[in-house]
Amino acid sequence: MSPSRNQPLDILRGVAILLVLGYHYGYVMGWDRVGWVGVDLFFVLSGFLISGLLFSEYKRFENIDVVRFLIRRGFKLYPAFYALMCFSALECLISLGHVPGTMLAEVFFVQNYFPHFWGHTWSLAVEEHFYWMLPLSLIVMVKRSRHKQNPFGAIPWMFAFLGVACLALRILAVHWGVPLESIHEETHLRVDSLFAGVTLGYYRHFQPVLFDQAARKPLWVPAFLCLVPAFMFQLDTPLMNTFGFSSLYVGFSCLVVWAVERPFSKRWAARALAWIGRYSYSIYLWHIPVGFVLFRGRQGLFFFLEGTLASIAVGAGMSWLIEVPQLRLRDRLFPSRSVRGRPAVADFAITGAQSALSAGVHPQSS
């Protein structure tokens, strides 16, 4: 394993993707009921890890290169995603004779608001919108704050506001009869889960004493208590689509804090989960197409086993085929600032970000 990777967080990624596979390939009782919560775990992890990259950059350089961040994110996410969309278009041309117009929503990452082709890519749209919102929000904080060492002190308050606002909007949506599927998928109703992870990242980088004190507590206890509702209520219930989502991100936040400083494990199960977690993005992208193309119409134990194993194998293979070469190219063309010499404070990042903000740009792990 790369020394730059955190094994416990890779294990959580592995758990998250296995939860999702068990939910979509549904055979094991219980697993097929609660596996959807893996996406919520991904949301908290994404908020924690992505904010950590930006906070680390600010602590070292006293600015954030928003343009470089978005380019590097693009190299990480877009090649694999658009490879999936090209495959989907080709499959439709062969089997249907045309490309469905619903694919356009996914091409522009608005599939969580408009009719879309694949049922699982809505979460990628939520995260894409977050990747634009977070760095621009942090730049605004840097510009407005007088505290250069820690200009992000408003983040806990921002999260508190978002937590209450998103919950209130979900409750109103249920009251107004909005379909539960829309509540589950739309960014403005789910972004609180990602910002829960951002708040964890803030405390780890700027309030490390408090974070370490919390990490030493038996947080798996409140984590378990907050995650219990997922076992008691189905996804398609109003309670789960309102308070349930809030309970989930609190539980997963406790789990992330508890896990992040756990020591490296040499146990085969831990190493296997971490290996799966390392390829979780491509596994997530391809697991539905794998089930649809290779195993359409099948059910039962063998479908569950073959589909799960095939999804992991295809996802890992596509990662090595697409993600790894693109990441190497990214690191040659747009190397991480952590391996460059310290720039002047008036860096390309600040000027680029300020230009984007003044131009009214509308927003949409290393």
Description:
This protein has one domain. Helices cover 72% and strands 0% of the residues. The chain is built from 16 helices and no strands. The chain is globular. It starts with 6 loop residues before the first helix and ends in an 8-residue tail after the last helix.
Whole-number average pLDDT?
89
Structure annotation, total helices: 16
Low-confidence stretches: 339-364
Task: Give the H and E element order.
Answer: HHHHHHHHHHHHHHHH
Total strand count, please? 0
The rounded distance between the terminal residues' Cα atoms is 15 Å
The helix content is over 70%
Radius of gyration: 20 Å
Largest sheet: none
Q: What kind of assembly state do the chains in view correspond to?
A: single chain
> What overall geometry do the principal axes of the alpha carbons give?
globular
Bin the strand percentage: under 5%
Class computed from helices, strands and strand pairing: mainly alpha
How many domain modules? 1
Which features characterize this protein?
single chain, 366 residues, mainly alpha, globular, disordered C terminus
Note the topology.
Elements: H1 7-24, H2 31-34, H3 37-61, H4 66-95, H5 103-107, H6 122-144, H7 155-175, H8 180-185, H9 187-206, H10 208-215, H11 220-232, H12 240-260, H13 268-278, H14 280-295, H15 301-333, H16 348-358
Give a brief rundown of this model.
The chain has 366 residues and is mostly helical. Helices cover 72% and strands 0% of the residues.
